[in-house]
Amino acid sequence: MTGSPLVLAIQERLRSAGYSDLPAPFTMAGVQFAFTSAMRGRDGRSLDLILLIDTTTGDFGDRDGRQVRHRVEALSRALDVTGSRFVVTAILAGAVLADGIEALSETCRVLQVEGVALDVAGKPVDKDAERQLDDRIRVLLPLTLPDPPTPTQDGSGPAMEQLIRTLPADTNKALIDIVISTSGIGEDAVTDAVAGLIGSALQFEPRGDES
Questions:
Q1: What string of DSSP letters covers 80-144?
Q2: Same domain? 117 vs 14
Q3: For the segment 116-150, what is each residue's pLDDT rounded down to a tens digit?
């Protein structure tokens, strides 16, 4: 099941951000679950489980909010049975579902994607459409800090440089460098890198007279 052009556009954007497709249907706790598409993150987002629900084509009863909620709740119960730590995000691609969506948000994170201008190949028609799509699923994408096109006359520079200038002068440079270099990968990568830096700083060699 390929889904609507909007679903294809969302899948392609998530793949470019490091997500991988799961089989359709996929099995959890011995039970098969059928959604338009399911994807999983990797590295710092390996616990992200994404469900794409195509409210445009209505496959799997996806125009019926109650059916959607029941399937997601069943998946949530299966995850609980297996002790899974997956964080589930349901992306509703297309028209807003009226019934059961409020209750659905109590079970998982819910993102609504609609009104993105696509070409015949199912790709955003221009930069504005790409930005609109990104804005709808921003919470799932790596953090990026845009640079201004040219330096300004008042001495302000790229966003990261402005951030660095606001830090105390005695801030550890190695700490700054490692946070900047890993910030685009994800929160877990930053946490692991900082923990490693702190751990190495706490290591010491025993004095020769110590037994």
A1: HHHT---EEEEEEESSPP-SSHHHHTTTSEEEEE----B-TTSSBSSHHHHHHHHHHTGGGSPP-
A2: yes
A3: 999 877 899 999 999 999 999 999 998 765 555 55
Residue 189 covered by a domain: yes
> Do 192 and 110 share a structural domain?
no
pLDDT over 70 percentage in the chain? 81
Do 20 and 124 belong together in one domain?
yes
- Confidence (pLDDT) at 206: 52
Handedness of CA 32, 6, 138, 92 (dihedral sign): negative
Query: How many structural domains compose the chain?
Result: 2
Here the tokens at position 126 are 């221009």
In a domain, 145, yes or no: no
Is the residue at 153 inside a domain? no
Show Cβ contacts of residue 15 under 8 Å, excluding neighbours closer than 6 positions: 21, 39
Q: 């609507």: which residue's tokens?
A: 4
| Helix (H/G/I), strand (E/B), else coil: 31 | strand
Strand partners, 40: 20, 49
Range of the domain at 124: 5-140
* Same structural domain, 37 and 94: yes
Amino acid type, 173: K
For residue 153, what pLDDT is reported? 47
Does residue 210 lie within any of the structural domains? no
Question: CA 53 to CA 101: how far, in whole Å?
Answer: 12
pTM summary value:
0.67
- Give me the amino acid identity at 70: H
Residues in the chain: 211
